[in-house]
Design brief:
The complex is a heterodimer of chains A (326) and B (289).
Chain A lengths: L1 H15 L1 H12 L1 H7 L4 H21 L10 H18 L3 H23 L4 H21 L1 H4 L13 E3 L2 E3 L6 H23 L1 H11 L1 H6 L4 H27 L9 H14 L6 H19 L3 H15 L14
Antiparallel strand pairs in A: 1-2
Helix pairs in contact in A: 4-9, 4-12, 4-13, 4-14, 5-6, 5-7, 5-12, 6-12, 9-10, 9-12, 10-12, 13-14
Chain B lengths: L1 H32 L6 H42 L9 H23 L10 H4 L11 H23 L1 H11 L1 H6 L4 H27 L7 H14 L4 H21 L4 H15 L13
Helix pairs in contact in B: 1-5, 1-8, 1-9, 1-10, 2-3, 2-8, 5-6, 5-8, 6-8, 9-10, 9-11, 10-11
Classes of the chains: A mainly alpha (326), B mainly alpha (289).
Chain lengths: 326, 289
């Protein structure tokens, strides 16, 4: 137990090592150069960033607070629909759409968090799944407003004006990738600050031993609620980027299978590590892209990946250290 | 109007009965093993497909008996090979595992039996309506409800009056003590998982006769079953029973007046329960935290 408590800051420190950071960011910045050489395309990298951000948002809750949400697609999808609906019906402004989507998804999560904050473990997860599906059915059946099963179309990302300058992100390609990367960088810098703050350390304390944290006078429910809420805001932000990336929002962005994908990304990369979910998202997106181009039975392969990860690789790529079970 | 309401009430009973069978199996596994079985809907589909494969040789009645048993046996294998390994781990692993399993099972069903719907033939006796006035109620609908009632009563009697049932109920409350008393908890959990799968397989055969077969036929039942468990109260099988009936009836009656809201009303009940009575209608205090 005590080693686990010491282990967490050490490992996080590894994620902050200047050399590691330089390598990660250099790799991310040079994606438009090296990815085509490997046969990939830049939109794929954009997807990795978007899903990576969503999974990192989830990991704030799952890895650093020790609370399992299996319904984070809800907040991702609400972010996507929030941004898409804003662009389509309200105002042709990319920043405002992102703001609206993030607030929409984040606030929905914050309110729902209040209802379930006293639940734990598998019951908490069950409530998050059920609540997530509510939004799926809403988007699915409210045909006239959301486009129903076919998804929300007829909107596209708008150029962003900075005084005299205009950033034209309407085309795909490197400009939009760097736009995504900039937003990603700001978001995870914020996330790093949250996790390094006393609040973030308290979350880890709750994860390691909830009862002890309670005895120390920490308001556990309040912290879990805040963690859930912050996590939902990050995931909703990722959702708005997803809508911008595809110029499209579909009900599958709200479906619980996507929640499952977020969780498996986090686990593949290593929950309880800062960068793990990004790595997991990269692995998962590449694998999914490759497998679905190879065979129609991609569902079996994805399913087998889930099973193999759970049975033989539970700590993930970056989580090499031993940590306590259950 | 009276006929429309009567039609939807019977519909609600039937849908509710399916929710109940499905949710009781899920609930059994959840209570004793702390595992949410995402693949439960796929065990249901498996039951239907096995009945489809067996009915040419065994006939409908034979398939109805044998297919759920086979699903239970497959449940034993799955539990031994996979589920058992993650009992003492973080809940995230059990969810991921059964989630992956659901993907594989759905894909395998699609691979073997094809993506399109298949019908399951019924005996002529069951396919007839019960009378000219009540032409919309076939004997099969009555039969389904009867089978569900018998099997639910059987399950409760089993849990109440047999030694194994007693152990399962005790294990739900305190598995560690049950293990300390010298009971083989590993076998108990395997058996319990198989019973859950058996119930799923049975509902699969019944559902196949009504709506036909397709690889994701269980998916639509999975989410309402989760909600039935939460609404009824985690830890209480009686709660699950009432939760399933309640949301089935509510959905069916909403269909009479406002069809597109039938799904929404289920979620409204969920939210109301979480707000007003978080432990569920019959749930015990503390079971959910």
């Amino acid at each position: 137990m005590s080693t686990a408590i010491i282990a967490a800051p050490e490992r996080r420190a590894a994620g902050r090592h200047p050399l590691v950071l330089i390598v990660i960011w250099a790799a991310l910045i040079t994606v438009p150069i090296w990815l085509p050489l490997l046969g990939g395309y830049t939109a794929l990298a954009g997807r990795v960033l978007v899903f990576g951000l969503a999974a990192m948002g989830l990991n704030l809750l799952l890895g650093f607070t020790g609370v399992l949400s299996f319904g984070h697609a809800a907040y991702f999808g609400l972010g996507a629909y929030g941004a898409g609906l804003t662009l389509r019906y309200v105002v042709h402004s990319t920043p405002l759409a992102m703001l609206a989507g993030t607030l929409f998804g984040g606030l929905a999560g914050t309110l729902f968090g209040l209802l379930i904050v006293h639940r734990r473990g598998v019951y908490f997860a069950m409530c998050t799944i059920a609540f997530g599906q509510l939004w799926y059915y809403l988007a699915y059946s409210w045909n006239s407003f959301t486009g129903g099963f076919d998804g929300l179309r007829d909107f596209h990302r708008e150029p962003i004006g900075f005084g005299p300058f205009t950033l034209d992100i309407t085309q795909g390609g490197p400009t939009f990738y760097y736009f995504l990367l900039a937003i990603f960088a700001i978001a995870i810098a914020l996330m790093g600050i949250v996790l390094r703050s006393p609040f973030g350390r308290t979350l880890v304390a709750i994860r390691e031993n909830e009862r002890r944290a309670r005895f120390l006078g920490i308001p556990v429910e309040q912290h879990i609620w805040l963690s859930f809420s912050i996590s939902c805001f990050f995931t909703a932000l990722a959702g708005t980027l997803y809508a911008l990336l595809n110029n499209f929002a579909d009900p599958m962005a709200l479906h619980y299978s996507l929640s499952g994908y977020f969780v498996v990304m986090t686990v593949i990369g290593g929950m309880r590590t800062f960068w793990g979910p990004l790595l997991g998202a990269a692995v998962f997106v590449m694998l999914q892209d490759y497998i679905s181009s190879m065979t129609v039975n991609w569902m079996s392969f994805i399913g087998v990946i889930f099973i193999l990860v759970v049975l033989f690789f539970p700590r993930g790529l970056l989580g090499t250290r031993h940590w306590r079970a259950s | 109007m009276a006929q429309v309401i009567l039609y939807n009430v019977t519909n609600g009973l039937i849908i509710g009965a399916f929710y109940v069978l499905m949710a009781l199996g899920l609930s059994l596994i959840l209570n004793l093993s702390n595992v949410i079985n995402f693949a439960h809907g796929n065990f249901l589909a498996l039951g239907g497909y096995l009945a489809y494969a067996l009915s040419p040789t065994l006939g409908y009645w034979g398939a109805l008996l044998v297919s759920p048993l086979l699903v239970g046996l497959i449940g034993v294998v799955v539990e031994r090979l996979m589920i058992r390994r993650i009992y003492n781990r973080d809940p995230v692993y059990s969810l991921l595992l059964t989630f992956g399993l659901a993907f594989v099972m759905q894909d395998v069903a699609r691979y073997i039996w094809g993506p399109n719907g298949l019908p399951l033939g019924l005996p002529a006796v069951l396919a007839q309506p019960i009378s000219a006035n009540l032409f919309f109620i076939t004997w099969y609908r009555i039969f389904m409800v009867a089978v569900v009632i018998v099997s639910v009563a059987g399950l409760f009697a089993f849990l109440r009056y047999t030694r194994i049932g007693l152990r399962i109920r005790a294990g739900t409350l305190d598995l560690e003590t049950v293990a300390t008393l010298g009971i083989n908890v590993r076998h108990l959990r395997t058996f319990n998982f198989a019973v859950g799968c058996f119930l799923a397989g049975l509902s699969g055969v019944l559902a196949a006769g009504q709506i036909g077969l397709n690889p994701n036929m269980g998916d639509d039942l999975l989410m309402p079953s989760f909600i039935a468990i939460i609404v009824g109260g985690v830890g209480s099988l009686i709660g699950t029973l009432f939760g399933g009936l309640l949301i089935g009836m509510a959905a069916a009656l909403t269909t009479v007046f406002y069809p597109s809201a039938s799904e929404a009303v289920i979620y409204a009940i969920l939210m109301a329960v979480l707000l007003i009575r978080p432990r569920g209608l019959i749930g015990e205090e503390g079971m959910m935290s």
